[in-house]
Structures are given as structure tokens and as C-alpha cells.
Amino acid sequence: MFNRFIITFAFVTLVGSLSAAEKNWHDAKWTIRKKIDIDTKSTAITAPIGTTAVLVRLHEGIFSFMSGREDGSDLRFTADDHKTLLKHHVEKWDSLLNEAYVWVQVPDLKPAAATSIWLYYGNTTEAASAAAAKETYDENTTLVYHFADASKAGADSSASGVNAEGAPPPAASSLISGGMRLFGQSAIKVAANPALDWAAGAAATVSVWIKPSALQANAVILSRREGANAFILGLDNGVPFVEINTKRSTAGAPIAAGGWHHLAAVAEAGNVTVYLDGKSYGALTAALPALKGIIEIDKDTSAAAASLAGFTGEIDELQIAKVARPAGFIQLAAVNQGTGAEAAKLLVVGSDEASDHEEESEMAKHLSLIQGISKDLTIDGWVVIFLCALLAVVGWGVAIAKFFYLNKIGKANKVFLERWKKVSSDLTALDSSDANSIKSMGGTVSAKAQKLMKHSPLYHIYHLGSEEIEQRVKNGEKEAPSSSKGLSGRSIQAIKATLHGGLMREVQRLNSMLVYLTIGIAGGPYLGLLGTVIGVMITFAVIAKSGEVEVNSIAPGIAGALLATVAGLAVAIPALFAYSYLSTRIKDAVNDMETFIDEFIAKMAEHYKES
Questions:
Q1: Do 590 and 500 share a structural domain?
Q2: Phi/psi of residue 555, each to 5°?
Q3: CA–CA separation, 94 vs 87, rounded Å?
Q4: What are phi and psi of 350, to 5 degrees?
Q5: Distance in angstroms (rounded) separating the CA atoms of residues 123 and 31
Q6: How far is the first Cα of the chain from the last one, in angstroms, to the nearest whole number?
Q7: What is the structure's pLDDT at 13?
Q8: Is 118 in the same domain as 250?
Q9: Do 286 and 200 meet the contact criterion of CB atoms below 8 Å apart?
Q10: pLDDT of res. 47
């Protein structure tokens, strides 16, 4: 009874967990999702942020472009509850280069905390685009220029819809997708619009990315004039500034030409704060004047701007809001939209998670096709594939066995050489009445190490040479007991010949069975070709007999016949790689043995001098 209860409880728990997991998926039609963590704590953003549009950069390393729609229209973003859809829009989607730039509205983003959102994709059949740029930004955003649309570089992505006039084509490679390259010659104008009106003393935020190509005096990035009132955002010899009615903000350290910087001006309660790269840079005690006229970018064309120059360089991501954005909002934009190390820490894109309703993968599709093709194989093709499979099994068995064997002798050689360094200083130490003196290398090797060294070809050669020395020294002592231990030149040559004979036997052992790999390399493609030729021949013979000449009657037979060639190549290519690797390892082992033989002969001639 108790066991039945346990089984029932486990079953209910399993069903409940599976059901919960299914409910935790936004929509079964979207087969893939990935978690995106926005970690403001890792980038030391401690000031309030609020609702903001976060830039998500997608590239081949973190996103499977082949698994979704080719225009990115199946993208969906949700909050961590997998229910609340987040507004987003695609600034650029390049399925050729496999890169994309997507803006996602994250409500009430918290400072010094981690916020998780989820990206869903993989609905390649039913998903219509849900990306609406004008909905991505909050109601306080009055102007957003991405400068990425080649057809209309000055298109406004905010709800205001105030497009810029006179904007040149976007620069292809900029900070975020496209950008605007400016030469300071003519102004890009933004027509007057009630959505862009500034009341006297009102709050406002202007932000833009700049990359000056040269440092100029009083270069205008953005200006707005109406009568005696004026607002200018500019760069004076590398020093960012805000000027209101001839009063200019305090100066900080200048920036260098050729680098991207985030510049923002926040007006609120009679003060303007200038931010550079997310940090407070300068200040101006002045209220925002009442301005309802046009906005000019790159150049101030009014008569009162004779002392001002046009900005030369690139700009990107120009945004204007009718509220004073908090410091955390500005800092987040500078980090998130930039390309520095902090951007990678702020936005962490997780790995793909597949749903239970996942569509068939590309690999599964290929395997399914191969399975279908195999149904059209003739008996001759199956015989060829069986032979190829047999070659593959034997070849891989030999390769794996040889790989472990070479690893074993490599370790054994290492242990032997460590002992050999001690013994080689005086080979006469091996001369002992102890029968195990040679095996134990003069008593310097333990039984455990001796057991390992038995796998070493160097130890085999050493053992062979040492026994030859021992035998010839004993014979010399019998013939001349009073003479000192020594070897004649003839004996040394004979021992050398014995060692080389041992070398040849070791080489044969190392190269044994490799012939099966060479058979796979040479025979696999020929077997495959034979199967293909026979299959094609039979296919055409059947067509000739039936008289039906169409693709549907030819293609299955040809595809089945080519499967034999694939099988042959599948045998030959891995066998070729394995053979090349093993041959190199064997060659190194043979070189070690030849080097050891030369060293052994030299030590032998040194310690057993002819008397």
C-alpha cells in the first residue's frame, strides 16, 4: 500500500511539474527561447532608472538566425513571468551577416539589481511582426533617430513621427547599426511640431552618441533658436557644452577625436546637467527657454551663429524627451548602447531552450531525408554500404586501440627515461650477481614502476642491449679472468646490430594493424563509387525499360546511388585523419628509439672500454 502511494505521488508530481513547465512557456508555437539578464549591479548603476528601451545586440554566436523568420518578425520578448509581452522593434536585421539590433522596452528597470527578460523565436510559419517602433518608447520620448534606414535616414522612431529633412544616407558601419556622417556643411532640419515644444523652465533631455573626426572650436551638434532664446549642444575643441542664451556650461576634460562618446544634457528646475559617457561632466545654472521652432543638427544656420562651426564626424542614436531623465537612465544608455566591456556585463544573453513542441531541427531533417533516400537503395548499394560499415568499424577499432596503446607507451617511456638518467652515468652498476639487476636497472626501479616500464619500447631495447653486454662481459672474464671489464669494437658493432634488430621489431609492433586504416582510406571511396555506378546504371536501365523520363523517376534512384559514395567517403575521411595522427605519433616514438640507441651505444663505449 505504501509503495503504491509513493508511485502515485511520484506520478502526480511528475505530471504536475510537466504541466507547470508547459504553462511556463509563453506560447507553444514559439519553439525556442533564451533568457536575457540585465544586471545593473555589475556595472555599478545605483541611481534610479525607470522605464527604458534596452538595446539587444544579436549575432551568430548567441542567436540561431536559421531557426527563425528571415526578417526577425517572429521575435517576442516577455517579462520573467513569460506572460507579459514587452514592446520592441527591430532597428536592423541582416540575415546575410547574421546580426541584428533590437530595442526592447523594459518597464521600471531597477538599479543595483538583476532583471530577467525572455526572448522567444522559432515560429517560422504563423508569426506576424509585432514590432512597433513607436510603442517601444514611453510617452515622454518625443524624438528618436536611429539613422539606420537607408531609404529614410532621418526617420523618427518615436510616437511623434517627426522625420528630419536633408539627412544624408546613413554610414553603413557605425556604433549601432547605421549612423550619420556629418561634414559641418549643411544643417539637418527637424520641422516644428507641437510634440517637440519646450515651455519656459520645462524639463527636457537630449542625448546623442558622437564621434568627432577632428576637434573644432564651437562645433554645433544640435541647436534650436527662436528670437533671443537659444539652446545649443556642442563640442568646443573636444569639450562638450550646453549653451542657453549665450551662457555656457562648465568645462571638463576634453575628449579625443576618433572615439565614440555618449553625450546628454538634462534640464530641470532651472539647472542643466551635462553627462559624458554616463557620468556628470558639467553644469549650467539656467532654465530651459521657451522654444517651438525647428531643430537643426550639425550646423546652426541662423545669423546669430556666425561664431559657431558645423560638427565634423559621426553621430548616432539621437533622442529627445520632455522629462528630465534620471542619472541611472543616462548611465544605463551609455553602458548598454556602447561596445565596451561593461556592455557585455550589463546584458548577458543565455543559451537556447527548446520547447516540447520544438520543430524538427536541421540535423533531424537531414537524417530523415537520408532515411527516405535509403529506401530507394538497391541490394548492390546495401552490400556496398555494409562493406563500408565493416571497414569503418574495423578501422575505428584499430585507431582507438592504437591511440590508447601509444598513450600507454608514452607514459612508460617517460617513467623509463627518468630512471635511465640515473643509470646512464655508469652502466657498470648493472653488473651484479643479482639476476634481476638489469630488469630493476641496478635496483633503482620498484616493482610497480618495473611493471609499467614493460610497455616501453625504450625499456625493451635497453633490456636487450644490457643482456648482450652482460653476456659478452661474462664471456670475456672466462677467457681472461684477470683483465678489466671491456668490449671489443667487434662486440660493440654486434650489440649495435642487435639493438637495431630490436628497433625493427618495435616498429613492426607499432605499425601493426594500421593497414586496416589504409584499406579504409583507399578502398572506402572505391567501394562507394562502385555502389554509385551500379545504382546509376540500374536506375537508367529501369528508366529505359519503362520509358518514363522525368525527374520524379530519376531522382530517387540517383540519390540512393549517391548514398553509397557518401558511405565510402564517411569511411575514408575519418580514417585518413586518424592515420595521419597515428603516423605522426609513431614517427615520434621511432625517433625516440633511434635517439636512445645512439645514446646507449655511446654510454656503452664509454663505460666498457676495450682493454
A1: yes
A2: -55, -45
A3: 21
A4: -80, -175
A5: 6
A6: 94
A7: 39
A8: no
A9: no
A10: 94
Judged on CB neighbours under 10 Å (0-12, 13-18, 19+), 23 is exposed
pLDDT of residue 551: 62
Q: Which residues of the chain have pLDDT under 70?
A: 1-23, 126-133, 356-369, 372, 376, 426-445, 476-486, 547-553, 610-611
Residue 18 within any structural domain of the chain: no
* pLDDT for the residue numbered 400: 93
At residue 502, the pLDDT reads: 86
User: Rounded distance, CA 130 to CA 70, Å?
Assistant: 15
Question: What is the spatial distance between Cα 305 and Cα 223, in angstroms, rounded to a whole number?
Answer: 10
SS3 227: coil
485 CB neighbour count, 10 Å cutoff: 16
Q: Looking at this protein, which amino acid is placed at residue 169?
A: P
Residue 309 three-state SS: strand
Tens-place pLDDT, residues 179-213: 999 999 889 999 999 999 999 999 999 999 999 99
Residue 532 region by backbone torsions, left for phi larger than 0, else alpha for psi between -120 and 50, else beta: alpha
Q: Angle at Cα 57 formed by Cα 51 and Cα 61, nearest 5°? A: 145
- Say what the pLDDT of residue 610 is: 65
Neighbours of 454 (CB within 10 A): 12
pLDDT given at position 6:
35
pTM: 0.57
- Based on the fold, state whether residues 147 and 111 are members of the same structural domain: no
Query: Are 469 and 487 spatial neighbours (Cβ–Cβ below 8 Å)?
Result: yes
**What is the predicted pLDDT for the residue at 390?**
92
- Whether residues 540 and 396 share a domain: the answer is yes
Q: Of 323, 106, 291, whose CA–CA distance to 207 is shortest?
A: 323
Contact residues for 452 (Cβ-Cβ < 8 A; gap 6+): 411, 412, 415
Q: Are residues 132 and 148 in the same domain?
A: no
Range of the domain at 524: 372-611
Residues 6 or more apart in contact with residue 296 via CB below 8 angstroms: 187, 188, 189, 190, 220, 222, 223, 224
Closest CA to 520 of 560, 580, 589, 584: 580
CA distances from 479 to 434, 484, 492 (A): 22, 12, 18
Residue pointed to by grid coordinates 551662457: 247
> Biggest alpha carbon distance in the chain?
126
The answer to whether the CB of 473 falls within 8 A of the CB of 430 is no
Count how many domains the chain has.
3
The helix (run of H) or strand (run of E) holding residue 271 is: strand 271-276
Those residues with Cβ within 8 angstroms of residue 142's Cβ, 6 or more apart along the chain or in another chain = 158, 160, 195, 196, 320, 321, 322
Q: Which of 288, 279, 333 shows the shortest CA–CA distance to 198?
A: 288
> What is the residue type of 603?
K
Q: Cβ distance 221 to 315 under 8 Å? A: yes
Show the DSSP H helices in 424-513 as ranges.
447-453, 457-479, 489-511
Does any domain span residue 333?
no
pLDDT of residue 148: 85
- pLDDT per position as a tens digit, 386-441: 999 999 999 999 999 999 999 998 888 888 888 888 777 766 656 555 556 666 66
Pair 77, 187 in one domain:
no
| 378/286 same-domain check | no
